[in-house]
Specification:
649 residues, alpha+beta, six-stranded mixed sheet, elongated, protease, Penicillin-binding protein 2
Amino acid sequence: MRKVLLPSLIIIAASLLVLRIFYLQVIDDSFKLKSDNNAIKIKYDYPERGYIYDRNGKLLVSNQASYDIMVIPREINKLDTIEFCELLNITKEDFIKKIEKAKIYSPRLPSVFLTQLNKIEFAAFQEKIRKFEGFYFQKRSLRDYEVNYGANIFGFITQVNENLIAKNPYYNSGDLIGKQGVEESYEEILRGIKGVKYIQKDKYNREIGSFKEGKYDTIAVQGEDIHLSIDAEIQKYGEELMINKRGGIVAIEPKSGEILALVTAPSYDPSILVGRQRSKNYTLLYRDSIAKPLYDRGLLAEYPPGSPFKILTGLVALQEGVINEQTSVACNHGFSYARGRFMRCHCHGGMLQLHRGIYESCNAFFGTSYMKTINKYVKPSYAVDVWSNHVKSFGLGQFMGYDLPTGRKGNIPDSKTYKRIYPNGGWRSTAIVSNAIGQGEVLMTPIQLANMMATIANKGYYYTPHIIKKIEGKPIDKKFTTKHVTTINKKYFKPIIDGLFDVYNLGTAYHLKVEGIDICGKTGTAENFAKIGGVRTQLEDHSIFVAFAPKDNPKIAIAVMVENGGFGATIAGPIASLMIEKYLRKKITRTDLETRILSKSLQGQYAKLGGLSETVKREMKKQDSIVQSKTTTSKINKDTVKSIKKVTR
């Protein structure tokens, strides 16, 4: 048996090898296609990217024609370099540099020589292309922005790098890919599928027709259109309200988790990242390390949430049974929580119960409620984990899973946090009481604050926030239609909501009411420190406001964070009221608030942090000089100057 087994295995293996070779060489000639590369020219047909619409069908992003100059280095022959460079308005040094880069990629394969020529530039080159062997043009489509806002939502299109080409065989040198925003999140849907044509060449390098009569050719498939959940009108309005301010606004539809507005300030006109000036303009924005126009504060900025966090403090205390609606706490403009320790409060003082504690934002009431929650259990470490788990059930302290490629998880402390801070133990509720009022170790992003309010509006559940509403011909991810239920009993939300409603009727947002709209809200002020000249300096507090409306059957939940804006009712509160009215009524009746906010500038506060970087200042001067010295300036240069100035307002 052993004598037969080995020869049998050898015969079987040899037979399989012969069959495979026969298949590859005789039946399947795809490998011949690759081996004949010298006699075959590959042309790609790039499809249009899918269009982007808002929730109401308004077109936000379409496409415009563009042309890339491609080069195959080994086919360059008898080139008049001077004429070529003058035609494309480049230097000889640039020409040499680009050719060398193309040779490194491949002497025989096409690579991009010059990108994104407009129609006028292309027409001039097309007239003389026959004189430049080794060069040809590749038609592409670039983004055409129908609006001048929403840059952080859309993202932009850029060329793939070598690392991505090595990882993903779909992409070749010079291909375009979406970066940031929905362009990155939905790249595979928006990009479509590029077509390929194989052209046969003769020994004189002349094209003689399709290889194998087009057997291997494929047709380009246009990208799918997508509809965002964004309401274009309130997105635009939010960006206008945030001019000359820094911060973020996030609005969510509670019943679906759809993001209605995602505002970051400062921002920029998305059109400046299109065309041949894209790289230069991106560098200009990137180097502004102070205003940070590329930094999406709505998703990335982690702030102490301040008084809005008292909502969760109250809910957890109710759930744990340490307070009820009738629990009374004495406030003497604050309360003494330990020997020599006093937490100040700006409410009117006296004996307060839950309802008044909410609408007057009493630190004493919620500080006491938090300490009772922690002191309920023998071990503070166990107690803080109980509290932390309740709070995390609102989607806090974790990445939320929304469909945008950037974000931060904030911070909700637990026992591990305090074991690191107090390695020798001995800590208790008095050491961590500042968590009660949204200070201490608690950090939240604006989108988390907005989702918290959506959860309150829903009386205890939320859907993962998402920016996609519809994809043509495809369902959206099921995770966006999956309900998440908190650990808080539904019955405890009613007294909290009643208190939030009276924030507008009796409390800190009384002057922000909008006639005819029942708004539930909460003001917030978070302390703000920064290092200036190496010294920890207290700056103007951050202004925070969260709200939802209407009280019954809520349609919008919103969080507004304005850096260095002062009290919550000063800037963030009016912005929230205006955004809510704009969304629900499509018009504004509180024109007094609108005028005040549109004219309000916080640049003086930001100047304390150093103002605009010197690099950006120099570039702005250069851009201004270009515009003033040229009688005909391209639209992209004008838009660049306008947009960069918008960033600094």
